[in-house]
Amino acid sequence: MSRPTRRKALLIGNENYDDGRFAGLPSARADTWRLRQVLEHRTIGAFLAVRSAADLTADEMRYEITEFLDDCDEDELALLYVSGHGTRLVQAGGEFHFIARDTDFDHIAETAVSAGFVNEQLEQCAAPQKVVVIDCCRSGGFAVGLRTADAPPPGAAKSGEGALLTSRGVYVLSSSRAGEDSYAGADLPEGAAPSAFTHEIVEALRTGKVGKDGTGDVSVADLFDYVNRRMRTNDSKQIPVHSAQGVDDQIIIAGCPLGPAPQLVPLTRGTAAAPGGASPQPTSQKAARSQPTWPDLLAYYRDCVLSDVTEPPLLRVDAHGSSYVCLDGAERLLSGDLDEDHCVPMPAQATALVDAVDKGAELWAGYPAVVLQGASRTRHQGVARFAPLLIRAVEFVHDEEGMRLRPYGPVLPHPQLARERLGADEAERLAETYQPTWHAGQHDRMAVDVRNLLAEEYELPCVQEPRPDDLAGRIDIDTPGDGARNTAVLFTVPRATEAATKKLLKDLDTVESKAAQIGTTALAALSPDPLERTEPPPARAREDVQLVTPLPCNEPQENVIVAAMTRRLTVATGPPGTGKSQLVANLVATAEAAGEKVLVASTNNRAVDEVWERCEKLVAGSIVRTGSADYKTRAEAAALQSLSLVEPPACNVQTARMRLTVAAETLEQARAALDRTVRAELRLREHGEAREEHAAELQMPVDRLAETVRDDTVAQRAERIASARFLGEWRRKRLLRRVGVPVTSAGTPAACLSVAGFWRAELGWRAERAELTAGPDDDALAGALAAAETGMRDASATLLDSVVRTSATNGKDLITGLIRAQGMNGSDWSAVGQVLRAVPGWAVTCLSARRFPPNPVLFDLVIIDEASQCAIPQILPLLFRARRALIIGDVMQLPHVTTLGAEREAKFRRERGLRAEWLEKYRLAFRRHSAFHAAERATGRSLLLDEHFRCHPDIAAFSNERFYGGGLNILTDVRGRPHLPGRRAVLWSDVQGRAERPGGSWVNHAEVGKVIESANYLLETLPADATIGVVTPFAAQADAVRSRMATDRVRVGTVHTFQGGERDVMIFSLVAATSMREGTIRWIENQLNLWNVAVTRARSHLIVVGDAGLWERRSGVAAALLTASRSEGAAGQGRTPDELKRLYVSLSAQYPDAAIELGLVANGHPVDALVRTGGRSTAVLLDSGPPEDGDPARHLRLMLRRRDLVDDGHGKAHRLPAWRLFES
Predict the structure, then answer these.
(1) Average model confidence (pLDDT) for the chain?
(2) What topology is assigned to 6-150+164-255 in CATH?
């Protein structure tokens, strides 16, 4: 056990909140007050420094945490404590957020402090022992949904629930499980009591009762055991959890007090704040660094891009002295056996590598050398190759004694060696979970770790016994066979030279050279300069946007189009099956019809091709596909040739535009009719509710009361005498007797007012009912709307065709000029810039932006799709070329992937003077944030595409509730789709197989057999045009299935293969079995994005193949899928018992001879009732009206669409407005 000589702590307590919807927490101040005393006590915590900070804003919290962890050294213990509100966000993948003083309840993800940020700072912290204590609600969910480097630990908390924080090398104590509240202490007159969890911690340390082994030391593990046991004994409503991944040594946090337990100074209402209680203002030096410039930010991104694509390769053994050197003596760089300055002398042989490092190569140390002689793919021209098993980044530093070597960052498994031996999936898991078990200079412990890793993970022998304290001076290749040699190496990794990366770096250089012009572009939205970030005036008024929508377009999509045509930067969230490509095609048409130049981009060719093909089908040449040399010579050349020969339009632009104007007015009129209908129905319902309320007050039925109070005279008289004093009681009783109304205990004045109120409601009821019944019925409304939408699409297609043909016809010289320029040597940028006037629409991948000259505002609009998978630097050149931009993504689908380590990114950040909390505030950190995150933060919101059309309602409902918080409207039409009659949409095939790892990645041959059997059954049962897919988390499983699949009709691949695709039936092979490592199962379990993508590829059926018993014992997505496979479908609309009773009574009266059934499913969609009569069934949808802030016209459109979706053709579906429930 190695004990740091110094202990430091940061205690944060957030008591007060600007948003009144967060209740104040006086106990937070008591928590930090009491905990600080025991940590500072000389015989208990003996902490060198304890800083308290209270009521911090999100910016201040990030600043304090960054400063504290950055300042911790390699011989210190760091303790971070937070008391306050906390929550998990479904829309952020379940990620935990700390609530700050200025957090907005409606925008928590944007205004709170994310667990991912804290986790990142912990990983970068140099302290060898780190402890985090969280006293917040749902704090057990601290790291749910974080990036892959934060996968959950293999162990389980003593509560019986898996601890959900996974910061490697950090011991975390959380006050409650992921779904539980934590309880504050009482706010007493003499002062606030501490929170329940913190109180137990403080008392355990203060009294010394936590001590176990008689040494007087208190470990964090002992502390958790004691507090957990105490809270369970006290029947606490919250159960603490802990995580200790990568912590295999005792962390001593305190000692038992000597003598009697010390008494703590009580916190009273008059007690002054502890020293350091207020968050300090940054010094002028730090303030300057906190306001970076474009050169700072672009240099940081250049460093990250270069390092991200640079990966340590397998090395040639004969390259000694050029790309690597062997070290002798004892291994010091990985083992941490360093001098006081955290460096080691530079070995003489390492001078051979200095030139390579000076030219930009990275320097790494590694041990032990693993030689691979057996596989031909690891040999190069007969020369054996090797790679160190473990590696660590190193840099040259200079001091008065000369050059020295300083290691930094974590010890990591060599990525390419891991993929070679384990396969991509297991290599990824190992990279996420590996943590060294030795402390500085523990060579024997290091040797044990190396042996275990070789035997258990790599299944490789130790050709030479690991002895890191006595290295071999060369790599032994004379001994035959693969395996580890007792050799440590220092090696260089040249910076990557991929063509796409070179182009991106050149573009970033160009952007920096033209930084003064950024303010006119969409890139200004991400500017480090607050003034430049300020949103400029709209490009045009909303009412001046003429929508051109040749494809179906709903209201959320229209909102995105209007925003993209008016705002500098617009962000849209597009969950699976919500019509993203449809939206893009309509936006392209709208922009081109407005005379604008448009560029569509995405991270991959498939996504770009999908939009291009849609646009091409609408109007050939409306988008030209270009990019790489292949696309440039094929797709671009063909499109330009076709456009150079295009004929003039049959309808000129002016006429086509007027036709669209008329069609838009017709559509607006149809929607206005919907709006009037809904508003009248709402008023009618209000009148119906008021009639019943007044009738109940008078203890009379509504119909009888309506017959009794027959005219205004009675009502007016009743209202007039309700407050009369002269003979008032006698007059009131006489009136009530005359109309037959009994006098209740409420008295005659109340009865008269009820009579008057009833009559007003009755008059309103009659008037609104007459107006509604005289107006168009649902069929007429739906027909008018459908006709108007068709007219809008047709007129839009005509206008787009006219615009494209006219532009091409008028610009033939420009088009032929570009064709000629492409056949000549040199750049064709000048011709490209000119041709945009004739050919305004283009499509490329993000890394092909350099097909176009890097001029600011080259395009009026740039549309970037799949931005959640896109790194921030990739979109900067695109935004620079744009006046306005639309960013589309979905954080719940596949994230952007980076191999850059946290410590290396932190090095680049510090070198460029950037602060971690600043990058976090604006979501600009390279590792943590995608392009979508950065854009969403810049705009402050994302517009949701919330109408889903792809998956069977049961499948879509699962994804909707699990990943989108129930925010989607499911409008899938299952009629006519290939399907298995009588079978559920979600099916589970129970296979209790064995998971094996013969060549690295995992395979379950029993599941492979079941998948083949299921696929063959589907091929025999479904129509010939049905599409089938097989998806799995593991590449080896996909390969095994593919090798046994006898037809190419079934597409097989990993989840990444299917991103953006869909199949009628998807078979999902989970692979996991009891023979699989627990850590690997947890890795599968917590890849939420992969689960979402896999599930939402299925249109009609999702067949899950897996061990039901294994997954049933666990929580998570798989267990929920198993439950879904056993349910009867998406029945139920959340109706109240009163609504259901009224519905049943109403339908029974309307259909006296029919069988009424409530809460069923029709065509996969839930219906409120099914009326069966004469062999026919009629689905009934109860329409309670739109939400309070909802659009009435859109609400009725959706209800009419749902009415159509549940119509099975045997009986017309029926929408029942809620006012009908109040008819007498």
Answers:
(1) 88
(2) Rossmann fold (3.40.50)
